[in-house]
Each structure stands twice: as structure tokens, then as C-alpha cells.
Amino acid sequence: MTEEHLLKGWEEFEAGALLFSFEGDPSQRKFHENNSIHHSVADWRVLKPVFNEELCIHCQFCWVFCPDTSIIPKDKKFGEIDYVHCKGCGICSDVCPTNPKSLVMFANQTPIEEALRNWPAKDEKKKENSDG
Amino acid sequence: MAKQHRVVWDGNMAASQAMRQAQIDVVAAYPITPSTPIVQNYSQFVADGEVEGEFVMVESEHSAMSACVGAAAGGGRVATATSSQGYALMVEVIYQASGMRLPIVMNVVNRALAAPLNIHGDHSDMYLGRDAGWINLVANNPQEAYDLCLCAFKIAEDMRVRLPVAVNQDGFLVSHTAEVGEHLEDADAYGFVGDYTAHNPMLDPAKPVTYGAQTEGEWHYEHKMRQNYALVNAVPVVEEVLKAYSQLSGRDYAPVECYQTEDADELIICMGSVVGTTTMTVDRLRKAGRKVGMVAIRLWRPFPKEALAAAIKNAKSIAVLDRSCPMGTTGALYNETAAVMVENDKSANLINYIYGLGGRDTTTEHLEGIFDDAAECTKAGKRVKPIIQTINLRGKSLSFYE
User: Fold this and answer.
1) Least CB-CB distance to A15: which of B215, B219, B226?
2) For B234-245, what is each residue's pLDDT tens digit?
3) Where are the domains of chain B?
4) Which of these, A12, A73, B24, B158, has the minimum number of CB atoms within 10 Å of its CB?
5) What's the ipTM?
6) Share in percent of chain B as helix, strand, coil (round to 5)
7) Is it true that B4-199+216-249 and B256-399 share their CATH fold?
8) Fold of B256-399
9) CB B209 to CB A6 under 8 A?
10) Nearest residue of chain A to residue B199 (CA atoms)
11) pTM score, two decimals?
12) Beta-carbon separation of A20 and B219 below 8 A
């Protein structure tokens, strides 16, 4: 949010409190200053998902299910996590089918390296391809 | 002037025919007495293929207005109808409609609010929505219910306004009373209303937009004042549309209707079906040499302060009629009148009557009594009656604020 936007007078806002996503042609991806892309919700998060590249099969379930489009794919593979907009709901980890999971929830303050060192082991009781 | 057709319609049929002629994209409604026939007639038009738009039968009035908000934000012409408890259930969403500046048209067939439950006419529901940010027009007979419903679309959709409009008519006394009236041909009616122009529609992928954003301390006040600016400044647009409609139909309307006010010493100010009865009473008393007149409020919101000031400028005593129990103060129309008097340094004896609750009859005899009270004040040169009086109430005489 720009300082200028916060100082706008009543007559300068769009009637009906409407917010536009883009400036001009949407295909140019010039995001409007009101667009959520500029607003961090990282502090809503208690847990954060951590990604383990060695385990991922790139099924993209996490990308499909993430309610905040915070799984950013690249070339139809897992790309990165958008930690500015991820609210830590854990759905990505929940739907991850690998064993052990490729996305695991850790406390928000845990450094990524530490999380990777403490990755859970394979669950031997869990049958391969089981949907439980 | 356009060709007209004579018909016998009640207020509900009149409103539904105006809706048919306006070629609405989406009507979402949940029927409730006494507005049920509006929804029923309209659904019949849909079933008979007379209208092309969608009719959405929803599970409650809250859903009806929610569907209207969604459809209007999507970019369509939208209308609905309701009454009383249904209106009350819609209230949360009618504030959303006006706050998002959606030009929805709603026919409100006025009815009492429970408890105790009552299906008959009074203005409790209209007063409930008083501060909701809708333009409110008042139709006093079936002809006006038809005419004002057509005007409502044109007012709401005007780019200088873009606010929802409610067209009020009294339950049963207007909605179910069949009278001879005239209507325009379909092409003329639609030509007057015009094609719908979508403004920032959600269904435009070339310009994605968010409706219903949250605005905390930094913005909320600015947005509400912008909305109020549009509402207050809608008065000249309303006048303009009513004038254009008068040229088309030959029927004149104004935000404040004056009847024999110019030389009147005593005035009744009122709204709704009682306007017809008051007109008759004025005629009767004028024949007997009494200088009485009537001011009917056609535009309840935005309140036409200037026009009311002009209408009452010569009056010595003014009786204001409110068809809703004010619950702990004076009636809302009385309060508006008192404010206009103070703002214009106008002094007159001002008295308030609470009448017609739950469909209680108000006759010419009652109105003559009110003019008599006002005349007593005029003669005494001061207010000699209690501030609030009741009319046709059983039991011991009851008044408030001596």
C-alpha cells in the first residue's frame, strides 16, 4: 500500500469500494496497487509448509488444492512456495501423496535447513498407493 | 405523447407489468404477502415466454437480495419485490446493494412488522430501510406503482446515480385494489427505460474487479460519504426522469406533490394510500370554505428538503402523518418536517399523528378531525394539541409529549 493511496480523498475512490486487479490489459500483468499481490499475510501463519525437493514427484496436487495460489509452479513442476501469501492452512501437506511427504508443516520460525534435517521418516505402516 | 392502453390493474399487477416491460436480466425473489402476486405474475410471464431474463426462486429473502447483488455486480439489470418480514430479512443485504452502488429495483409492498404478526399495510418496513442508502419512491395508487417502477430503473441506472431504488406501495390498499389505469406499449416503455449499461461488471475478464472489499479505518468513512454524495445529489436526476416520463405518459410527478397548498393555512403532510383520502378531504373542506391543503412526499430518500420548504412556506399549522410507530420519539416524517422548518426559519404549529398501524382504517372523517385540530392551533396562534396524537385507536384517548 502506497502512502499516496492511504491519503486519497473520498472523491478519488472508485464508487462502491471496488478494487481492480490490474492496470490496463490483464495480459500485461501490471498489478494494480490494490491487488493482493502487494499485501503480505505471512503474519497470519503459525505453521509453514517446507518443501523437500528430493521426495517430490511433481504431481501438482498441492498447486491444485492450495486455496491461496501460494504454490507457484514452474514448467509444470513444483516451483516454489509464496511465503508472502501462504496462510499456513496445511492443505498442501495434507494432499501430498509421497511417503514421506514432500511438503511438511513446521513452526513458522523454524529455519528451512533445520526442517530438512528433521524430516519425518517413511511411514512403514502406510501401504503404498493406499488412499488412507 | 405515447399511445396508452386502459386496463384494470391492482398495484401488484401494475408493478409486475412494469417489470416485464423493463426486460430485466435477473429477478430473484421469495414471495411474501402482500407482494406475492408481483412474484407470481412475473414467474407466469417467464413461464409463458414473455420475458427472456432469468427468474431465480430462492429459499429466503436474504438469498433473494444476495442473488440480486450478485447478478447486478455481474452486470445485469436486476429487480425483486418483497414486504415486511421479508424486507427485514433482506436488510443486511440491502446495505450491501447500496454500498456496492448496484442499481437494483425493488418493489416494496408496505406491511406491518411483527410482533404481533400482521399482514396488513403500514410503513414499518419502509421506515426500517430508511437509512439503508436506497432511493425510496412512494406510489399512492396502482397507476403510480406502474409509472414509478419504470422510472425507478431509469433513475437507478443513471451514471450520475448508480444506486438501488425501492418503489413503495401500501399493502392491500394499493397492492390489491384494482383500479382503472393506463399503461404504455411495450416498445415505448422499454424505449424510456433504455438498454442496460453495465458499469465495472464482475463478469468482464478484460477488467477483473473485486466487489465487497473490506475497508477499515483508512477508507470506510470516505466510501460512505461518497455514497451519500451520490444519494443526496440524486434529487435533480429524479426530477429529470419524472419530467421525461411525464412528457411520454402525460402523468406528472414530483418529489413533493402539492395539493391546494398555495393559500392554505392548514396542511397535512403524508405518504401512501392516505394521500388519495386526504385529497378528497381537502376537496370537501375547500367546498365549505376552509383553507386547507396537502403535501404528499413522493421521494422519501433522498429527502427533498428544498421542495418541502417551498411547499410549506405559507402554512400556519402543519399536521404530519406517520404510518409507523416511532417507538420512543416523534415520527420520522415529522422529524424531517421539523428539520426543514428549522433550516428555513419557518415557524408554524407542528403536530404529529401516528395512524393506520397494521392496516387500521383512516377515513375522511379522521382527516377532517386532523384539519380541525390544526385549525384550532391556527386560531390560537400556538400549538394547543399534544405533539403526537393517535387516530382511530380504541381505548382511552392516547397522546404523547403534551
Assistant:
1) B226
2) 999 999 999 999
3) 4-199+216-249, 256-399
4) A12
5) 0.82
6) 40, 20, 40
7) yes
8) Rossmann fold (3.40.50)
9) no
10) A15
11) 0.91
12) no
